[in-house]
Structures are given as structure tokens and as C-alpha cells.
Amino acid sequence: MQVIKELLDTFFSDVGVFDAICVTFQMAFCATAISSVLGILLGLLLERADFVGKKVVIRINRTLMGVPPVVVGLIVYMLLMRRGPLGRLNMLFSIRGMILAQVLIITPIICGMTYTTLVSRAPAVRAFAKTMGADRLQTQWLVVRELKKELYFAVVTGFGRSISEVGAVMLVGGNIKGHTRTMTTTISLLKSQGIFTEGLTLGLLLLLMAFVIQSLADFFQKGERSDENY
Amino acid sequence: MKKQRQWLAVVLATLLLAGALSGCGGKEAETPPAESPAEAQEEAPAETPEETPAEEPEETEPAADEADAAPVEKKGVLMMATTTSTADTGLLDYLAPIFLEQTGWELQWNAVGTGEALKMGENGDVDIVLVHAKASEEEFVANGFGVERFQVMYNDFIVVGPAEPIAHTEDIEAAFKTIQEEQLTFVSRGDDSGTDKKEKGIWKKLELDQTQNPNYLESGQGMGATITMADEKGAYCLTDRGTWLKMKNDADVELQLEVICEGAADLLNQYGIIAVSPEKYPEVNNEAANTMIEWICSEEVQELIGNYGVEEYGQALFTPNANE
């Protein structure tokens, strides 16, 4: 670890690149994990439940899939600031605050994608489960298992959104060196200092690490037939 | 039913497309707005000579009421790179229309840190720079990127923070020493801007290593965001007075920080204006840049600068000193 840190420090100017990388992934993993649980559960619920105004809810969900992160950032900032409603939690300019903002951004994406998949694929699985005499819980479990790949794709999309996000993280985290500075906000800072090449290198590093993580995830999915469609 | 829907979709899509295209077309016909300096800085210097005559007929209509007041014809765009403080305080918003009216040049600016502003000048992306870091500016001129540095005005830096435990003082050194010794929270810009350089210079002069203070934070953001952060954290920070007054006046949430240190001689913040060298970059708009320098250093404009902000904030934000 120390070796990597020194190596990074010799190449990059004094902007705390190593810490930024740690913060980025800490934040992205937490935010994706929370959003995945929330998003998939909400997606399942939305597909199963039938209520008045469901179409509107779905449309709102789709709209939120494209919500501008800065807007979420601003809202979370106003909630968390010292004189805001949640000011006592002392979460502004902390990783927890950043995770909160990201969960709000990513959950609708995972929820929407889960719902869309379920709508087109779940009825067939469910019919099959019925003929096999499965109960409700078993049926739902079978649906999730059968659509594992699609759900995995939704989670991966959420993760990608999380590590690449800059607007909300900048507002809520504050880009504090060594504490809440992420790779993307570092790039933004490097740009503002006119150090373009280092910013670009850091961007490539971010992509490279995302690639490695995708490969690892695929590796652990072994046993499934490899599917290049996603 | 289904067919009707398809048709509706096609019609809607066409309308959207048409709207988008005409929107873009309209934008091109007008001079690029100040909000998109990135585009403008690429297009403006090269295209202005050919574009100006073609623009004229379309421009007369929307600018009809202005044209009455403006005796001078529009000549084109002057692209400036400047620090966040001149833009955040609204000084340029105030000066630009007067500049246009009196000289015919439209001033557009890109407000960034001093480091980046000079970099833009070094790359020939802008015609002129207005910044505040004397040493860097002189280096900029010495390296042949700028023609000559003219001093324009100054404002001063102040330290803001909670009234406890540092009482209001003139002694910047004592204040910084207390922050270091008692490990008080301090928010630094940390973005290599003029303000950041000033602050780092003070630590260096005192031979203190501010990074030893665990509560020393680097925000890596602009002055306004840094003040907000200091306010949230109950921290100290070094700021220029202009941005501070503006924030204090305009921010939605009332700031609870106070000025704890002001008036020290080495807290002066001198602004210089430099035209980007036309020898290095023949495509820069040197004519407009020279007009700007002559204009901003003129007695009349110097007086405008000296009076700017008095009405709104009760004190001037900048002190003109071009003629000293």
C-alpha cells in the first residue's frame, strides 16, 4: 500500500491522489450496495404491486433516472447544513453525506432497470414456478435467480454512475483533501489549476480500475455461461 | 389507434428536432453569450473580423434600445481570463456594458483561479488576463506570453472566522500562529489561486508547516464555496474582502463568521492587467486588449471602480491605483 502511495505521489502533484482513490471506492461500494438493495426491492415491489397511479409512479421513476446530480447535491447539502433540518447529524463534508447523495441518484436507476426487466421476463418465470407448485416466496426467489444477469447489469450501471459522478460529490463532500476528495473532484481541481495531463492520467486510471473491477465481478460470476451482451 | 400514435410520435419528434435546430441556429446568429466562455474563446478571436459585418443586420433589432444609447458600432469580442473574485463581486458585470457602450468591444470573461487564468493566456486561449499574483504575472511577461503588466486596482485580504478564541486584530502573524498552535480548524483554498498563494506565503514566512495541523483542510474550490465551508465548520479562512462582503450580503443563509484580522500591510491584493502577446499568438485580439487597458486605467473608469459597491455594501470593494 505504502509503495503505491509513494509511486502515485511522485507522479501526481500534491493533491492527495492516493486518498482520493480510497475515498472514491469506499464511497462507490457503499453507495452501490445500499442502492442495489433498495433499488431491487423497490423494483420487485413495483412490479408486483397494483395500485392507482402506478403509471405515474413509473414515469416519475424514469424521470428520476436522469436526475441531474448537482440538483440532488444541492438538496442534500441544504438538508445536511448546520442550520438545515438534518444539521445535527454532522454529515456535511463527510463520506456518509456523499453516500447519501449518491444513493438518491443511483437507486432510481437500479429500480427502473429492475422493473423494466421484470415486466418483460418475470411472467414466464412465474408461470413456470406455478406449474411446479412453488409458493409466493419461492416464486419471487426464483424470479430473482433467473434474472440474475439483468439485475447484475443494473447494479453495474449504478456502480459506474457512482464512480463517475462529480457534481453532487463536489457540493456535499466539499472536495476536502484527504477526507472527501474523490478521483473525479481531483480531476476537476487539477483542471482548475491548469494541470491537464495529470487530470487525464487520473481519468484513465479511474477507467482502468473500473475495468479491473468489472473483470473481477465477471470472474466471480463463473459457472454462468459467459454472456457478452452486457 | 396504433397508427395514429405512431404518427403523433413522428410529428412530436419532428417538432422537437426543429425546435432544437432553430434554437442552435439562433444562438449562432447572435454573438455567443457570456455564459459559454469556453466556446466563445475558441471562436471569438479568429472569427470576429469576418463575422462582424454579417452579424450587423440581425443584431440591430434585439439591440435596438441599446443602439440608441451606444454611439459606437459593435466591433467584436474581447476574451478575458480573470480571477473568480472580479467576477464573483460583480465588478465585471458592472463594467462590461459601459465598456461596450464606450468602445464597441464586447467583454466576455472566464473566471477561474489566477493559475489557470495565466495558463489560458499562455495557451493563447484569451486576449487579456486580469489577475492578482504579482510574481506569477511578472514571470508571465518575462516568458514572453504577455506584453506588459499594468496595475489596475487592489483590494485586501482578511481573515474571517469565529470570534473566539482569536479576537479582532491587525496582527496577521499572531493570528496564524494561534491557529497553528491551538490546532484550530482552517479551510484553505488549496487550488493554487492567487488567494491560495497568498495564504501559503504567510505560512512560509512564519516558518510554520500548516499541514502539521490536523484541522487544516484544503477545499480545492472557489472563494465562495470555501467561505461557506468555513462557516459550516466554524473554521477560519483567508479571503479577499470583495467576495466576503458579497457573500455576507447575498448568501441565503446568514454567515456567522466575523472578520478577525484586517488592515495588515502584507494583506494587500494587487490586480494587474496584461495583454496576451500578439507576437506569440497572432490570432489574439490585441487591438481590443489595448483598448481595454487604456480604458480601465483611464481616470473616469478608475473612479467607477472606486465607487463600485459603496451603495450596496457600504464600502468600496476595490481601490483603484492605476495612476500611482
- Total of DSSP H or I helical runs spanning 4+ residues of chain B: 14
Radius of gyration of chain B: 23 Å
CATH second-level architecture of chain A: Orthogonal Bundle
In which range does the helix fraction of chain B lie? 40-55%
CATH second-level architecture of the largest domain in chain B? 3-Layer(aba) Sandwich
Pair of chains with the largest interface and how many residues each contributes: A-B, 22 and 20 residues
Write the layout of secondary structure elements.
The complex is a heterodimer of chains A (230) and B (324).
Chain A: H1 2-11, H2 17-48, H3 54-64, H4 69-80, H5 95-131, H6 136-146, H7 148-164, H8 167-173, H9 183-192, H10 196-220
Helix pairs in contact in A: 2-5, 2-7, 3-5, 4-5, 4-8, 5-6, 5-7, 5-8, 9-10
Chain B: H1 2-29, H2 37-60, H3 64-69, E1 76-83, H4 84-88, H5 91-103, E2 105-112, H6 114-122, E3 128-131, H7 134-142, E4 146-161, H8 172-181, E5 186-188, H9 194-205, E6 216-218, H10 223-233, E7 237-240, H11 241-250, E8 258-261, E9 268-276, H12 286-296, H13 299-307, H14 310-313, E10 319-320
Parallel strand pairs in B: 1-2, 1-3, 5-6
Antiparallel strand pairs in B: 3-9, 4-7, 4-8, 4-9, 4-10
